[in-house]
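Hey everyone, long-time lurker, first post.

I ran two proteins through the pipeline my lab uses and got sequence/structure pairs for each. Pasting them in order. The first:
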Amino acid sequence: MVKTTVRRLGGIGLAAMILFTEAGMADTGFAAVMSPVNAPVTVTPFPGQWKYYGQTRKFIEDEHYSLSAEPAGFSENDWSLGLASEETGSQPFILQYHSENVDASKLTLAANAPRFEIREYKAPVSVDPDPEYHNISEYTIPAPGNYEISAGKDSQGNWNWMSELEIEGLHEGENDITYYLRSRENDNTKNAIDQTPRSFSVLVDTVAPVLSSLKIEDVTDTAAVGSVIGNEPGKFYYMALPTSGSVQGNAVTADLIQDNVASGRCIGGYGRVDGTGVGTEIKLTGLMAETSYTVYAFMEDKAGNCSPVIVSESVTTDKTALSGAADVIGEPAVDNTLTAVPRITSVDPGTLSYQWYRIRLDADDAKLNEDEDVSGDRNGLPAEDGEDDPAGRELTIDDAEPIPGATAASYKVTREDIGCRLIVGIQGANYSGYVAGATAAFVPKLIPAYSLPVVAKKNYSPTGTLASVRLPAQWSWVDDTLVPEYGNEGYRARFTPEDTAVYKTVIVRIRVPMTRRTLKKSMVRMKASMAYTGKAIRDNFTVKDQGKSLTSKQDFTVSYQNNKKPGRASVTFKGRGNYTGTVKVSYTIKEKSIENVTYICQKNREYNGKKQSAGLVLKNGSVRLRKNQDYTLSYKDNKEIGRASVTVRGIGNYRGRKTVRFSIVPSEPSVKAVKRTSGAFRLTLEAKQKVTGYQIYVSPTAAFPKKTTRIFMTTGTSFGMDNLAKGDVYYVRAKAYLSKDGKKYVSAYSKAKKIKIK
């Protein structure tokens, strides 16, 4: 096959055709120039064209394609450039002919023409349906703003786009609706169709709910409480009307109930039922006393369906409730008389009746069984009673036990009332309900009669506890692990009565008479000798009795004799508190070896041509020793650079001797001058006497870290470095040293010099 490329030649009006072979033909290696012929017009689409699915596109010359020549014999209305398919993906271009005038052989699509891309469109929005139930079979959902909506293609394959989607034939329950969106945005997405099916659900409920129960159960003079049960979740309304009223039962409709509740023109209200079969409470307030009422109610489910109106049984309110309060005067204790004082107005006192009750509270039980502690403190004062705390509780007769025969305004407390609070209920002959008063505290147990036991005198022992002190029957120590002491004011003991239901357990103090224990020398532990410390020796002992340590100033006092200088010293112990007697214990203070004191000295001294000292400081603990009073010094080899020593000899209160060694090192060098040249520097050190040489330290930082610091050795006083980078900074310092007897003696560092390279 031969492929032909046509190129227009400006100003000639002829077409030069270049022929070349394609695969399957032998390549001749040359091109032939032929005579002009009537070549077909080639349509070449431009590459990189695309659109979204659903958009239409009219292809225009020089905007979407180019022609190799002007068509002859037909016009541009006789044909057009189109696409082989309108589906998403890469689609080929095609030529479409609209007239018989077009000779297909004279108009062709360019070989290897680029393809057109139809892209998938995804709408960024969706519809927002009402999630609640509906009681209709038709539903309309609007399209989102700047979008059209469709249920999909019809049987002819056409889309029906609308501003809202009308749905018919909905069935009871959940209905799944599928829809599609087309963009009407004024941008490059206009008319683009999102082919992804979307869906939402429409919930339909056309069945009326049912209120299965309406009960009024708790009725007072002005209020009532009841319950209502519905067969499904929803909202209910209720209204109470006098049974003998002018409105007939069949005239009460759901609309009437709802209007009256909404406007507040009736006794009623509204609430919600959950459909579980559990009743929802309703409350009626503002009722008239001694009047019959009927309650009407209906419910509305989520879809708006209303139940039939349900009617309760007729209920009658009580007499007018007695109002007011009552006080109980008197202390609630056995054999005391309590008096009820009503605070009720407009009621004849002669029409009132009384009933006394007792009630036991769990919160009171712990306090009821507390011990009666009259032991007081160490000075014999009685312990304070804690205040009773009724916790602000309002007591009623509902759970209380009536006391037989206690029907007067006054009541005498008995032993049966112990542990209980007492309540009086007061009723009126022509009234409903009652008023009540109550004691602020429970009736306490009685205090039993007892006699304090007498305890025999005992000898003090640091290990003897109250457990060894016997008490009579019904008595026990509160804490029998305590050790009774001499001169005690008594220890807490408990008396337990035989009848603990009526009588309290009492705690008192019982004195335990004690004799003092004699202090003995065997109780003292002390070293036979101690080294001189330079100050008075104190607290160099322990005192124990039967394995227990005794305490100074509590069990004994101490005085010291000759307890500073070497020689014979003593400590005198005098009994105190639980102990009596005096004990004297002696020991020896010995001279201290000069070798066992603390030495502080200079490790290195700088050479200056004079004799050097070690700068010695000697300490015995915190006491500093005095030269020529506690010790003497003699130096050796302490002038020239090298190893020196000093011999310390103890005198006075110190004995023995010790040699301390130190070094004399060269004096610290100094930088005399620094000369900087391009890429180099040279420094001169001040010459030092009696040195072997110098150690030069060079670092890029003032801290002279070990890793980056270079060390140079020189025997002269001049040192330099070259081949350095301009602008670099170096820090330089030096040490002087002397090699002597196989050892190197090194001075301290000179001051560092900062050098910036030119």
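...and the second, right after it:
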Amino acid sequence: MWSGQPHSCNNSREETKQWLLVHGFGSVILVLFAQFNLKHHLILDSFISARV
């Protein structure tokens, strides 16, 4: 029973690394997307207010 423990621990560490990588990448994309959206919103708002 204990012989499988180190292997599973190492495996979970690799999974955790991948999970962190994926989530870190996802959050970076999310932040970039939010900033892009915000800029677009500001441009749209100024465009709309300029037209009105």
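Reply from user beta_strand_b:
Welcome! Quick read of the second one: The two ends are 73 Å apart (CA to CA). Residues 26-52 form one domain.
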